[in-house]
Specification:
The protein is mainly alpha-helical and 116 residues long. It has 6 helices and 4 strands.
């Protein structure tokens, strides 16, 4: 879609953490979710591979954070450490659930992303 010959690629998603949790119980991710939230949606569906594919294709610190979390989740702490460093973050000290929630809150707060 174009507005004044400028392509519209960005849309702000207004969603609370509770609303996102409800979204993760649906059969499909909300089309308005950015890549980071879509990766977390797939992780909540126990689809590690799809979440990993999305994170791997995100050339950002957020993508590296998700990537680190996923490798931590699978127990590959060496690989997780590499991705935490790429994300410029310390290895998360809490539970996986706490880290998922921290990421979700961060991505919901910083939710301008290209629609896919």
């Amino acid at each position: 879609m174009y507005l004044f010959d400028i392509p519209i690629f960005y849309k702000t998603i207004r969603m609370t953490l509770d609303e996102f949790r409800v979204c993760t119980r649906r059969n499909q991710p909300d089309q308005q979710l950015n890549e980071a939230l879509t990766a977390l949606w797939h992780d909540a569906q126990d689809d590690w591979n799809k979440a990993h594919d999305i994170a791997q294709d995100m050339p950002t610190k957020d993508g590296s954070w998700i990537h680190a979390y996923l490798h931590r989740k699978e127990g590959d702490l060496s690989n997780a450490g590499y991705w935490y460093r790429k994300a410029n973050r310390e290895i998360f000290e809490g539970t996986l659930e706490e880290e998922w929630e921290a990421m979700a809150q961060h991505f919901l707060k910083n939710n301008d992303s290209s629609i896919h």
